[in-house]
Amino acid sequence: MNDELRIFAGRSNPGLTDEICQCLGIERSSLTISRFSNDNLSVQIDENVRERDTFVVQAFTEPASDRILELLITLDALRSASARRITAVIPYFSYARSDKKDAPRISIAGRLIADLLRTAGAHRVLTMDLHAEQVHGFFNIPVDHLTAIPIAAAHVRESCDMDNAVIVATDAGGAKRAGKFATRLDLPLAIIDKRRVSDTEVRQGHVVGDVVDKDAIVFEDEISTGGTLVETARTLETAGVRRVLAAATHGVLVGNAIDNLRDSPIEALTVTNTVDVAPEKRLDKMTVLSVAPLMAEAIRRIHTGESVGALFA
Predict the structure, then answer these.
(1) N or C: which end of the chain has fewer CB within 10 A?
(2) Long-range contacts, 281-285 (Cβ 8 Å, 24+)
(3) pLDDT tens digit sequence for 88-129
(4) Secondary structure element (H or E) that encloses residue 219, with its range
(5) How far is the C-alpha of 54 from the C-alpha of 86, rounded, in Å?
(6) Which of these, 226, 131, 228, lies nearest to 176 by C-alpha position?
(7) What backbone torsions phi and psi does residue 125 show, to the nearest 5 degrees?
């Protein structure tokens, strides 16, 4: 099997790619990314990929535009090199937030990125915990949509009092996602009444559900500036919870996120390595779980033609 499999890493998270390769028992394939004097990017595939099954791992992290362009050029290079099949592995698809036209004269950029990936040469996409699941439908190529919920839930189960815990959604929009997490742990669900003022500011009201004297576990798909999460924790503290824990798939952690989270009432925070969490962003109360075994198994199943959905059956 492995003679036909090639896995390449973009510059967003090579550590995750190396973990995936280690799980599969193969070496990471080599490519060279450079810039010309006019700042244009260049990608050269450093080995033979003719008629090989190829995977490129690249998260859309800061600087997102550079990461996306790197991936597009790499996909095109693999197509030019006669790769048999090309899969874009995108652990964090940031443009899933741009899923609808909610203001005049704007682009639905999530759909645009989906079109660009196919045009560049991707035959399929492997991603994880899209912010808006409907983005899946933007693609005209097969998409395997993984979730880190089982990984995060297993960790949370070991770190809190499950007899006195409740899962909390930060708003009604996240209730479906938090509901899946609650179902996995067989726990009740509470929802925060939230009003978004701007991209970075939210106002929260009351809690819908019983949280008094309970361990409240807030579950999100991603943590960006941490503003929503911190306000949720303060709202829960006011509502009388015993303690607040938080979990999310994507620890994006931009802006003042680390200071916000450090000074918040959150006692423990769990994220995964879909986004590379730099050492200076790792708080003492933070745990970073690896999604490499899950992504490696999904890649193996795609390569051998087995069901990926069966991973969550």
Answers:
(1) C
(2) 281/251, 281/253, 281/257, 283/258
(3) 999 999 998 888 887 888 899 999 999 999 999 999 999 999
(4) strand 215-223
(5) 5
(6) 131
(7) -130, 140
Cβ atoms within 10 Å of 277's Cβ, excluding its own: 20
Edge to edge, the sheet with strand 5-9 lists 5-9, 53-57, 85-90, 124-128, 143-146
CA separation for the pair 11, 288 (Å, rounded):
20
The DSSP line for 233-277 is HHHHHHTT-SEEEEEEEEE---TTHHHHHHTSSEEEEEEEBTS--
Number of H helices, E strands in the chain: 8, 14
Catalytic position from the list 100, 101, 176, 194: 194
Question: Which residues lie below 8 Å from residue 41, measured CB to CB, with a gap of 6+?
Answer: 33, 34, 35, 66, 69, 70, 73
Token reading at 201: 């500011």
Active-site annotation holds for 214:
no
Q: How many residues does the chain have?
A: 313
Q: State how far the Cα of 20 lies from the Cα of 281, in Å rounded to an integer.
A: 23
At 77, the amino acid letter reads A
